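hey m, so remember when u said the C-alpha cells were messed up on ur end? i reran from scratch. heres the input so u can diff it against urs
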Amino acid sequence: MVLYFSGTGNSEYAAKKIGKEIGGEVVNLFEKIRSHDYSGLHSDSAWVVVVPTYAWRIPRIVQHWLENVKLTGSQDIYFVMTCGGSIGNAGNYLKKLCRTMKMNYMGCMEIVMPENYIAMFTTPTQEKALETIRQSQKTIDQAALLIKNSQKFPQPDISFMDKTNSGIVNDIFYPMFVHAKKFYATDACISCRKCAKLCPLSNIRIESGKPVWGKECTHCMACICRCPSEAIEYGTHSKGLPRYVCPKNI
C-alpha cells in the first residue's frame, strides 16, 4: 500500500506513479491527518510512504500520524521523499521512527522534483518544472522496481552537512520559520474558501470573506500555490513568483 502526503502535487505524482508500477493501492493521508484519524490500516504487501522533504526530514505532521497509527500485515516499509535539492540525513531519523513503529526499514529514496517552497525559494516556470519531472522518471522507476522485487533501497553516502541539516538545522528551522505569520490575502481574493479546505491542519478560517491564518502551520504551500486567483502572498518574497502545482496532476 502506498501512503502519501502532498501540498502541491509532487509527492502525489510520485506516489501514483509508484502505485501504478507495483500494482498497489494508493491512499492520500490528507483527510486522515486533518481529521486526526488514526484508525488502523492493513496491507499484505510492503508499505510505501511518499512525502515531501521539510527541512531535510519528513514532515512532522506525517511523522506524528505514523507514530499514532497501527499498520498491520507486512512489516516492511519504504520511504520516498520528494525534494528540491536534498533529503540530507533523513534516513537516520526514519530508522528511529521504524524502530518505534516496530517496522522493518527498507530504506529511503530521494526524488528531485520542482521546487515548491515559495516562502523561501524561487519556484520554476512550467517549462522548467516539466523538465525536472522528466528527469525524475528514472529514479521513480528505480524505486518502483526495487519495491516490486522486495529489495532494499541503496544507502546514500551521508556528509557532515547532511547530518547538520537534518539535525540541528531542522531543530532550529521549525520554531523559527514554520509559522503562518507572513501569509495574507490581497484584494484579488474571490472568497472561494479553497485555501481553508486545502489546509491539512484546519489552520485557515474565513473572516469577512478573506482567509485568516491561525498559529498551526506546516508550510505545505498548498494555500498559496493552489489559490485560483493568486491572491495569497507570503511576506514580500512570493510577490511576482509563479505559483507551483505539479503540472502532471492538473
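this time it looks ok to me. The domain at 178-249 is CATH 3.30.70.20 (Alpha-Beta Plaits). if urs says something different then somethings off w ur setup not the seq
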